[in-house]
Amino acid sequence: MGNIEKIIQAIDIQLIQKNKPYMLLTEANRLLTSTRLIADNKALKKIVESGLIPHAYQTQKSPKQWRIPLSEKGKAEKEKLDKQNKQRAKENQHTIQTQISDQPTLCCPFCGYTGIIPEQFRSEQYLICPCCHSRLDNPLWIERDRAINKKIKKISFILVIVISVIYVVFDDGSSSFDENPVTNSGLDASVYQVEQFLDDNLRDPDSYESIDWSPVTETENGYYVRHKYRTRNGFGGMNIENKIFHLDKNGNVTGYTDY
Fold first, then answer.
1. Are 37 and 10 contacting, i.e. CB atoms less than 8 angstroms apart?
2. 182 phi and psi, to 5 degrees?
3. Among 8, 109, 197, 212, fewest CB within 10 Å belongs to which?
């Protein structure tokens, strides 16, 4: 009886390893003779015919064949292994997704492709989608420019404060510095009221990049200035806008039109 249990166990192991539903008598004979669990090919047939392997069965249609499926113990073992494999697959998938999320990725708004940016292309300003071949802005380049622009804005703000303090300290009352509340910055020709308006109203203010400013023009009702800039649209791409901003005499933006 102990030998029968070893025979059933050997067949179960082979079926689980090969992920097969049953084993034919010929294949089982090769396995069991190679492991010396039976002496010859006739021994196994006698065992199954005598019912010592209760789950073995013979097909009814010709040619009739003996088939040995998994035993109940083997089925339980296979179910356990399947659960472990599924759990391991989930963990591997989670690991892969985590690795991808930690890497800089390119998302194409045109075809939906998402993939890791190869290291050799991370310093390029533009990238080509490997799926639809569209030319896209490199998000790493945008992030870098955004960081630089933030530093420039911060430095400009500090300089404005310093200049204002110096003006207040040394002003003798004869200056006409505040005659025009809307002026171009001496650093980059920007108009801070317009920049503040864009920061408050753009869909993605962090993506804003200044390109060009016209000189401020005074009118009867206030001022206007043309400004060309780049900003991210709702699809994730970058648009270049060129608009005329209208301001009242107090420097408040009252509207804008396309240039």
1. yes
2. -110, 110
3. 212
Count helices and strands in the chain by DSSP H and E runs:
6, 12
Residue identified by tokens 């989608």 is 129
Taking the C-alpha atoms of 35, 40, 46 and 47 in order, what is their torsion angle to the nearest 10 degrees?
Answer: -10
Q: Mean of the pLDDT values across residues 135-159?
A: 79
Kindly report the number of other CB atoms within 10 A of residue 141's CB atom.
15
CA dihedral 166, 170, 173, 176 (to 10 degrees): -40
pLDDT tens-digit series, residues 18-46: 899 999 988 888 899 888 888 887 888 88
Q: Is 82 helix (H, G, I), strand (E, B) or coil?
A: helix
In the three-class reduction of DSSP (H, G, I as helix; E, B as strand; rest coil), residue 199 is classed as helix
Give the whole-angstrom CA distance, residue 43 versus residue 190.
96
The tokens describing 247, both together, are 């301001």
Cα dihedral sign, 7-8-11-14: negative
Beta bridge partners of 244: 226, 257
What tokens does 192 get? Answer: 């801070």
Query: What is the rounded CA–CA span in Å between residue 90 and residue 84?
Result: 10
Beta bridge partners of 210: 229
Q: What is the pTM of this model?
A: 0.38
Place of tokens 């109203």: 201
**Per-residue model confidence (pLDDT) at position 112:** 83
- Region for 207 from its dihedrals, namely left if φ exceeds 0, alpha if ψ lies in -120 to 50, beta otherwise: alpha
